[in-house]
């Protein structure tokens, strides 16, 4: 699939991808990313491949300024930033480590 055909990350404001409902024990993953971000695409592809439900926000569109402020206020300067519920996982590389750990 070419980059232009990919559903994420594009001009997506908020697109829930939820094959299964999240539970309290396993809260929803959230990716804060933006268009043209290679690591954001990789994070989306990884969660999609693993069939893990997630919300995706493009934090560089004006409508999502509160989300951008939320990330910036934590001193975070790169995207993606991934959370599970309120727990900060980190960027793509931290997500890979987190999921590898969860698998083992
Ligand atoms: N180690 C980070 C690298 C993330 C990264 O370099 N992201 C780029 C965009 S793909 C970035 O945020 N660059 C700075 C910026 O866009 O302001 C990760 O694994 O997520």
From TrEMBL:
Keyword Transferase found: yes
Keyword annotations of the record: Transferase
InterPro entries in the record: Glutaredoxin, Glutaredoxin_subgr, Thioredoxin-like_sf
PROSITE patterns cross-referenced by the UniProt entry: GLUTAREDOXIN_2
Entry keyword Transferase: yes
Domain Glutaredoxin: 30-89
Highest taxon, organism lineage: Bacteria
Annotated Pfam families: Glutaredoxin
Gene3D superfamilies the UniProt entry points to: Glutaredoxin
GO molecular function, one term: transferase activity
Full protein name: Glutathione S-transferase N-terminal domain-containing protein
